[in-house]
Amino acid sequence: MGLDEDSLEYHRTDPPGKIEISTTKPTNTQRDLSLAYSPGVAAPCLEIDEDETDAYTYTAKGNLVGVVSNGSAVLGLGDIGAQASKPVMEGKGVLFKRFADIDVFDIELDEADPDKLVEAVKMMEPTFGGVNLEDIKAPECFTVEERLREELDIPVFHDDQHGTAIISGAALLNAADIAGKNLEDLEITFSGAGASAIATARFYVSLGCKKENITMCDSSGIITEERAKSGDVNEYKQQFARDVPEGSLADAMEGADVFVGLSAGGIVSQEMVASMGDNPIIFAMANPDPEIGYEEAKAARDDDVIMATGRSDYPNQVNNVLGFPFIFRGALDVRATEINEEMKVACAEALADLARQDVPDAVVKAYGDDPLQYGPDYIIPKPVDPRVLFRVAPSIAEAAMESGAARTEIDLEAYEEELEARLGKSREMMRVVLNKAKSDPKTVALAEGENEKMIRAAYQIQEQGIALPVLIGDESEIRQTAANLGLDFDPQVADPSAGDYEAYADRLHELRSRKGITRTEAGELIERDSNYFGSVMVEQGDADALLTGLSHHYPSALRPPLQVIGTDEDVDYAAGVYMLTFKNRVIFVADATVNQDPDEEVLAEVTKQTGKLARRFNVEPRAALLSYSNFGSVDNEGTRKPRKAAAMLQDDPEIDFPVDGEMQADTAVVEDILEGTYGFSELEEPANVLVFPNLESGNIGYKLLQRLGGADAIGPMLVGMDKPVHVLQRGDEVKDIVNLAGVAVVDAQKE
């Protein structure tokens, strides 16, 4: 099937459409229903009657946007009417929810009269925290938005006008920076003079471009003062009329620094691009076919053409989804009365700044593993970059507060963390640890320091103040890679081949001489194997923690730390733990990486150490030792081990958290089973520490939970070592390294 057929099937699959309403409170009992509706609902109604702002406290108003359209200018379809526009408005709702967790009612109004349209939206003001106008034709859209902004006390935003303006504005900030040009000096030519083009030109002036340097063309050519006087152009176009001779788009592009296309595909030739000034900036944003193709524009010049389009299959897509969800998120969260120019500028500047940062691996993978690095082919972030939410929305909120548009003040630092938590429980949990790490950073040695991911991680660790990273490896290679990546930092490097590390070799020989390692071999290991070098570095106190394993098998990466650093004084066994985060639950799974066939003593030790780890994440542990048996229902050697381990822990005065077992996995995590059949259990609530009977079951279990249960996994985190060591998995992303660095620092703080 083609795209059209696939889309029809996508939309008609039961249930039809793309959105639904779901409840946010329990509705399982008669009491639940009495609270949700009659008679209990009277209480919040009376509170709101006394103070209308309580609607934000007792209803969904504060997270609800109305997407309103009359279907008079839908995408590239034109005036197809209100009913036919509904799939587009539903789609807008999907984007609001997916990218900013904002709920939407789509409102399609069969009304062409702008005055009546305004009155209809005004009557719905009590319902919404904000209104997003969509697909209303020009020039009526200007009138509708202007009046609603004046007459409503909630944010009103016409995305067709301002979305492209803001996103392309962010691109312009970076393109001018890369081209070495000042905004106030840019000669800018517009092709198109509709709502989006006029709003974009206005916004560029807000960013610092000069209005007198903007030449706007419509289908009749350059908009001149002569044409304005003759009544040939409407009042909105007239504001960009120039006192220049009449001419064509080709005339307007000659010598221009910037071309902004918001018109029709294929109307710009290579000769027109060649006529522009040095290192031209071309935003050809007509969809689906740009004014000139990416390859054609690039081939038209020998110098550096910076090119953006509205398409996702070329670099620098100007995509409105980078703006409106996050603009409304910030505006709603400070209960803003409007979305003003200061807030729009803040959005563009935040997006421009984010494009200059190192790009997460997950974003790179989503775009085919092609490098994404600030430069001509990467001037605006990608829509799937999760950082857009907690970079842009706080900027909007701050601008709203500073400009007087906000009804309520918020703590921006706490707000950023709240936004990050919206992206998943794992981010919320990691934020607890990273904040602890930042309170007292420690030195973390990074083995395999020449690896690009390790270098990028070191940059982020240092930039965020999580730790003081030390990269182990060839110093010249590390510094060159950092420079090639465009990372603006001065890494601390320990180069085994260049420094005086004879003492490390002596210490390794001392520790391993009775295991067959000669002094010469110890020296070679220190110089050639960063795992041994890092292990001795930490053992000697020159670093507080070690991360390794990015390019080694787990057992071979774990071996040097075990040989050199060893387990804690009171611990005989290390273990590997994963933290799995679900929407409303966190579970620690052990042992998933180290002990193949543990006896009861090992199981008890693993449980004890995993409980300590849970508390570093501010989670009070409740531990279950798992089996295929429930509390003696099967009695054999395998079921006795977890049963004995549970008994040992229950008798241990140092264990101050509930432990029980052996029990089946569903018994451990389902409250009804624990409270019903096994009400005698030591666990009064479902377990959050699951200790598997052996390595095989632990590894299988965590991977099934992760893949089928939709959990995010953090780890493996190594517990029980004498000093903090964490062994990464091959293929881990930069964020995984940064997260484990935070865990290692908190471990070191405990030391």
Automatic annotation (TrEMBL):
Task: Tell me the superkingdom of the source.
Answer: Archaea
Molecular function per GO: acyltransferase activity; malic enzyme activity; metal ion binding; NAD binding; oxidoreductase activity, acting on the CH-OH group of donors, NAD or NADP as acceptor
Instruction: Output one GO BP term.
Output: malate metabolic process
- Ranges for domain Malic enzyme N-terminal come to 16-149
What keywords are assigned to this protein? Answer: Metal-binding, Multifunctional enzyme, Oxidoreductase
Q: Which cofactor does it need?
A: Mg(2+); Mn(2+)
List the residue ranges forming a coiled coil, or say none: none
Q: Where is the Malic enzyme NAD-binding domain?
A: 161-401
InterPro entries given in the database record: Aminoacid_DH-like_N_sf (IPR046346), Malate_Decarboxylase (IPR051674), Malic_N_dom (IPR012301), Malic_N_dom_sf (IPR037062), Malic_NAD-bd (IPR012302), Malic_NAD-bd_bact_type (IPR045213), ME_PTA (IPR012188), NAD(P)-bd_dom_sf (IPR036291)
Matches recorded under Pfam families: malic, Malic_M, PTA_PTB
Task: Please state which protein family the record places this protein in.
Answer: In the N-terminal section; belongs to the malic enzymes family.
Q: Record's PANTHER family?
A: NADP-DEPENDENT MALIC ENZYME
Query: What protein does this entry describe?
Result: NADP-dependent malic enzyme
